[in-house]
Amino acid sequence: MSDQQTPNTVTFTLDGQEVTVPKGTTILRAAESIGIKIPHYCFHPGLSSPAMCRLCLVEVEGWPRMAPSCKETAQDGMVVFTNSELAQKQRTGVLEFYLVNHPLDCPICDQSGECDLQDYVFEEGREHGRGREPKRVLGRDDFGGDVLFNGDRCVMCTRCVRFMREVAEDERLCVVERGNRAVIDTFFEEGLEGSPYAGNIIDICPVGALISKDFLHKARAWDLDRTPSVCPSCSQGCNITLQVRDDLVQRLKPRENLEVNGWWMCDFGRHNYEWMNRTDRTEVPMVRGQEVGWADALGDLLQALKDAKESVKAVTWAHAPNEEMGLLSGLLAELGGGEVVYRSPRTEGEVPLPGFPLLARREDLAPNVNGAEIFGFRRVGDNNSQGGLDELAGHDGVLIVVGDPIEDYGEDFGSKAELYVYLGSYQSKTASNAHFVLPITTFAEQEGTYTNVQGRVQRFWPGVRSPASARPGWLILGALVAELTGTEAPVSADQAFAKIAEKTSEFGGITYRDLGPRGAVAGKPAGVSGD
Amino acid sequence: MPPTVKVMRRPEGVRTSFLRATLKGMALTFKHMVNPNKITVQYPEERMEITPRWRGTHRMETHADGRPKCVACGLCPTVCPSNCIRLVGGEDDQGNRYPIVYEIDEFRCIFCGMCQEVCPVEAIHVGVHYENAEYTRDRFVYDLDRLMEQDHPTSLLWDPSDPKSE
Predict the structure, then answer these.
(1) Tell me: the pLDDT tens digits for A287-296?
(2) A232 in a domain, yes or no?
């Protein structure tokens, strides 16, 4: 923000501070930019503002009445008070009205702990209610899909109605009746079933009126550890938060990134997390059926690779991060070249989100198809990520498997291989012939990057603890490459990425510093965008 | 320098009578026999009265139909400083939230009473109770049924005549 006043900015006073913002900025957004939070329900940055919750009213000097800050744009010379006596009194009064029919069932409400009504009433509400009338009771209503509606808790902000109208463009919700009797409802029996983006209304609901059936009573909001990550369910790479309790992923929530997914994510990705909690894991390094330590395993493997320097074939999958793919490709180059194939599930047709054209559930149902293409891997197998490996199954040279559990092949996979190395997170019958079984961490347990459909490289962070002996794939491959080339082995994902970026022109010299929490498009490093 | 021990020799040839000391002790005994202010309690025939603010092993309150009052809100495991409460919530067939698993490890518990204080539905209580002996250690992890079976009085936590401790 520059202090120089140009015709495109306005300067006004907000709680005694001079603020300069671009013309057309609302008071609420201007306040957010200097760290002043104005309570609000109906306003959401991705939706229109109807200014109907009456909670964001601020006092403007010289104006006859209070102004809704979510709608009112800042003007030159305005003097705004968000925390004056009048503004506070107004908020306390509005909050009292919100509680007239609210059941105050926070102990059994899933929103408890992340509820805006709870927060605002705690901060500025009256200590005791004055209502003497019985509360209106609506009970709960199954809206279809994953959404459960609890009308008593609703504050009528209509974010859900506006999301379905403006962003999903699939108008299935509306406000029924008026005034005191107003309630959100679906049309007849139609419900939200089959609407691919309906889960977002659970996220944007500021209270516990719309809750997820999948998450119902599973965990309290304050028990969850939140880790920024990237959705692994398609090549769009929506920015998400892994919400984890006791090392089990409980739910996925979208994370704001205006260049990828806005504030949204699709229900397919949202509910595709159970596999992250799989327990049939590889846990200790095995060399020819014997449990060994990592140092011995890597030493033996290095010797075996040096002895068998011929005809290498490798297979991986599109769930592998860039670091793993890049170093696998580097390892093969050191072993005298060889082909890497990968498999990835695919579906017909994209599922776009009409109100946010950048976002769609893409055809490739794996996060790093673009990364595999950048490294020149060849795609095999069908649309269910099955088959295509017949040539490798009977390969008699060196066979390296990274990530893919290859569950569609039998126990004779790799039985003819001179050296069969299986780097995987999951136990698999196809690994039974492997000379080396090395446990690697899953994407939820390690740091790394994915390249999405736009060519944007995005980081993810570890949110779950891995089995004690599992190591990230890039650490193992990086150590092997380093030993073969006589260079220093990467000890962090940052170094691993730097190692592959210097050899891969498509990444255009970007580093982890350039990526930040929002990622950067390969080839044109952007500045670190703020979180 | 090595430590040295000085040995005191008992004086030889001196006769000591214990009669005076014995009489003195018996005099005290007889004095207490006739003393009207007896303070020894004949436990277990007699029991001391314990304060209503006593914080002992827990008890779960139940509804009239025998369901636990607990709604599995998760506040007691959150507030518990010794992390001794394990709670898994769920929904019963009538759509009520209830604890599927509710366990308190009484060995880890420090009897601070914060679980009772924080409970929004007055379900979990610390009890006015002290006889907890068991034959095995694992009997000290009280599960939901055990907590509901307890019938001792529950703690008041604060003095009813001075609830704000003023």
Answers:
(1) 999 999 999 9
(2) no
